[in-house]
Amino acid sequence: MRRIAIFSDSNRSVTAGLIRCAIAYATDQPKMSVAALVTRNPQAWEYRRGARFRVAARAALVAMSNSEVGWTPPQRFRVPPEIPVLTSDEFPTNSAELRTRLRDELGVDTLLSLYFGGILSEEFLSAFPDAVNYHPALLPRNRGLAPIGFAIYAGDAQIGFTFHRMTPGIDEGPILAQGSVPVGAGVPVSVLTRQLGDLAVATLPSVLDEVRDGAPGSPQAGEATYHSRIEVRSMINIAHPEEVTRDELQRRLNAFGSLRLTIDGGRWPVSRLAPANRHRLRFTTSDGIELGVSHLADLPAWLVRARRRLGGFRPGRTGSTTETG
Predict the structure, then answer these.
(1) What are the φ/ψ torsions at residue 28 (nearest 5 degrees)?
(2) How far apart are CA 271 and CA 281, in angstroms?
(3) Cα gap 159→153, rounded to integer Å
(4) Does the pTM of the predicted model rise above 0.70?
């Protein structure tokens, strides 16, 4: 009997789809099941009706304000009661307690990492015969964080994903499966991420079959690149946008979806720029072009500013670093 533990810190649309697929597929197999979900972010898995409504309402506002994005009902996964959720507060990453709970008490022999931010140690991985990670890049290029953003920023014609066996090196293990989608002109990074996620969901069952059958995977070949958290922050946090050209700002927006710009002494989650015109938040780029902020965190800037004045705005994470890396 193959027993799988899913490691994940995210419960957003792509991750929810992958987890839902893994559980459904395992349930249909006579000798496979999902035994636990391990997370460092327990709040992502709390089921609160009010929170679900707020997520859906915000998604509707984003779709209304960004016609090119389109409306897609936000997906969140509700963990079935028979699957225990193990948090890092109780079972720290790589701890003997977590290893014992998974291997000895729950009979886990397979780890499936889906947007898990912790780094599993060599000692911990050695306790489990099989460990597989999903990474949204065509490895070995763009290991590390925000791989989709860096692929688009580099001008790649396509973005992709890799399911690979886990080794102590980050995103370095043998490849089990890969897939890609073309980067269309003007297609938002959120839409590309969703398209890539749909393809990954369709691929996951065959990956689980390969793991069950003992497929070793293929060694990664080609030039490897890696992006650290410091590199991501240097891309999306711009303290002096007046020292950057308009083209460079737009290139980063196209790639990462959102930037944190310091304007008039405040830090703003800017997701769209436009000619200054009537926009109150404005600045002049290094090449002398006056720009205004039309959208903050994918919503109209006037709405976000009004909510901030009322104390009701929380922009959340800026930049496409959660489900793109």
Answers:
(1) -80, -10
(2) 13
(3) 11
(4) yes
The one-character DSSP state at 288 is S
Looking at this protein, which amino acid is placed at residue 252? R
What's the token pair of residue 158?
A: 């396509």
Residue 306: half-sphere exposure toward Cβ, Cα within 13 Å: 6
pLDDT tens, residue by residue, 101-114: 999 999 999 999 99
pLDDT tens digits, 273-323: 988 877 778 999 999 999 998 888 767 666 666 656 545 545 444 333 346
Q: Which pair of structure tokens corresponds to residue 22? A: 């893994």
* Whole-number Å distance between alpha carbons of 273 and 291: 6
Measured CA to CA in angstroms, residue 236 lies from 7, 50, 188, 229, 268 at distances of 27, 31, 16, 11, 11
Domain with CATH 3.40.50.170 in the chain: 2-226
Number of H helices, E strands in the chain: 9, 15
| CATH 3.40.50.170 fits domain 2-226 | yes
Residue 196 pLDDT level (bands cut at 50, 70, 90)? very high
How far, in Å, CA of 90 to CA of 74, rounded? 29
SS3 of 130, please?
strand
